[in-house]
Known about the structure:
The structure is a single chain. The chain is of the alpha+beta class. It folds into two domains: 2-116 and 256-275, Probable inorganic polyphosphate/atp-NAD kinase, domain 1 (Rossmann fold), CATH 3.40.50.10330; 119-252, Tumour Suppressor Smad4, CATH 2.60.200. Helix content is 21%, strand content 35%. It is built from seven helices and 18 strands. The protein has helices at 10-23, 32-37, 47-53, 63-72, 99-107, 180-183, 267-275, and strands spanning 2-3, 57-61, 80-84, 94-95, 111-116, 119-125, 128-135, 138-143, 150-156, 159-166, 168-172, 196-201, 211-213, 219-226, 230-234, 238-242, 247-252, 257-262. The strands form four sheets. A six-stranded antiparallel β-sheet has the order 7-6-17-14-9-10. A six-stranded antiparallel β-sheet has the order 13-12-11-8-15-16, with no helix packed on it.
Amino acid sequence: MTVNPEKPQARQRLQELLSLLDHQGVEIHLEKEASTLAGKPGPGQTLRDVGKKTEVVIVLGGDGTILRAARELAGIQTPLLGVNLGNLGFLTSVNGDAMNEMVTVILNGQYDISERHVIQSSLVRNGNPLGTYPALNDAVISRGAFSRIVHLRVSIDDEWLTEYVCDGMIFATATGSTAYSLSAGGPILLPTARACILTPICPHALGNRSIITGPDSVLRCQVTGSAGELLLTVDGQVQTPMQVGDEVTVRSAPHPVKLVTPKGHAYFEVLRQKLKWSGSNV
Length: 282
């Protein structure tokens, strides 16, 4: 189990959940921060340790906490059950107020597994790899606060696409299609789609629109010009400085992320609720 201790309800919900699981006779493993918050200080365990020992990792927090857990558990196929202690919660399956009821239902085996496609972005400078980063939501090339426009040369499967003059580029998964990419004008994909969305940020050519690639596609994006600071940001949490000449390669990661959802979980109902779709007033 892992928790975001900065959430106002974190301690209360953690204690409630521990009491419920203990009553059900469930073996519990806590990440170090969760152990401390529960009043059980000690050496603690890493999240990867927890993932290797458990059948389900319960994540108390919001979408950001799920994204962190997915990144730290990369390659470990233990499903994640998200309990929402935040506001939006696209990735969390259970709201805090309904936590006890829904967790009991899930413990009785009434749940589904939603497999989510993951991309990985590799940063290369002068032919030397600097790092590879998995992303459940997106990888974003963006300018710094005082930078000017960026020139990005993009190819897909070794075929040149075009050179974008823009503020940056978003590489989003289907899961991330309702995040930054959507705000930048990108499409919404069903969460089961194994695809990558290429969405330019504020392109200077009005004809530049999002492109959806397949699960086996390899995207390459090289910075050919920039007047200031550049960053590669993964899932809004990991940032790496970039410079002119750097290339980012994006492809499918070898393993999906598995999310636990209650039986009857309706994606479009969540979509309508979170995006406040209510139909026409006319």
